[in-house]
From TrEMBL:
GO terms for biological process: transmembrane transport. Keywords: Membrane, Transmembrane, Transmembrane helix. It comes from the Bacteria. InterPro entries: AI-2E-like (IPR002549). One of its GO terms (cellular component) is membrane. It comes from Bizionia saleffrena. This is AI-2E family transporter. Belongs to the autoinducer-2 exporter (AI-2E) (TC 2.A.86) family. The chain crosses the membrane at residues 21-38, 44-62, 74-95, 150-173, 216-248, 254-282, 322-341. It is a multi-pass membrane protein. It is found in: Membrane.
Amino acid sequence: MKQNNDPQIKSEDHPSFQKKVFIVTKTLILTLILLLIFEATFRIFLLVLAGSLIAIFFRGFSALIQRKTNWKEWVSVTISVLSTLLIGAGLFWLIGAKVQDQMAQLVQTLPETIENAQARLNNSTIGEIIVDRVSSKSSMDKAQVFAGQFFQSSFGVFGDIYVVLFIGIFFTISPKTYTNGIVQLIPVRGQQKAKDVLDKLGEQLRKWLKGKLFSMFVVFILTAIGLAILGMPLWLVLALLAGLISFIPNFGPILALIPAVLVALLQSPTMAALVVGLYILIQFIESNFITTLVQKKLLNMPPALIIIAQLLMGVLTGGWGLILATPLTVIVIVLVQKLYLKDRQS
């Protein structure tokens, strides 16, 4: 047979260079658009994740009430939600009122305390170097920038709390409606696998949340006992803050230490040093014993991976990223195990 060597037909069989460039450019633009959409909506995903964790807590609490009382599900869920909100409002009022009074006293006495500390530090060579470094213009500018960013991020987080609460309540009332809706978005052949993945995610997040709540409770008890023995004012409020902020691993104890040291400075520099030592001891116990005990019942999450996730999420999304970095790491590990490693081994 005679071969067809027409160049026009060959150009139709193989895309031209211009067409390849157009395809690559279109792919890059589409990828860039998707990345921009992901960056813009990732904060919303974090709020949904926070609401899901609240719903897991509400559901776990209601299940406990139902097991103890044999009441109907809707009654247990209602008691779970209302009692948690009332307790949270009471704690917020207690902490807010006490901290406001203490901050007024702190504003009056802090300048004198700082002057006394500077006078003591100036008596030694190392102390003079520390004072010069801390009081330098560059250090003060960095401190002001950090404080502004910190409080701006904090107020942004508090502004989103009502959204998270409503999402959590809606998820609590009818969780199957939302999980079934997600499954329905998957093709029929993959729906069973999607259910398995969602069940695994829910199981691991429940275990993680139980472990975290237990860790927070232990930190609260140890801090309350230690501060009470030291004779610290506001020991109960400071212990509550330490327990609540310990929800954030690694960086939470540092944030909890700041108000404790400020209150301790009202007493004496020695008291402040004792408080720092107490918090370091509690952090050592929590990290090496409590967290180790909890991790045995969870996925294997390397500590370095959690810190890296916190740094990345904190830079990208601010306060919510720092708070939710650990549960987000749990989700990523479960997805990799269920969707990638399991298929690769089969």
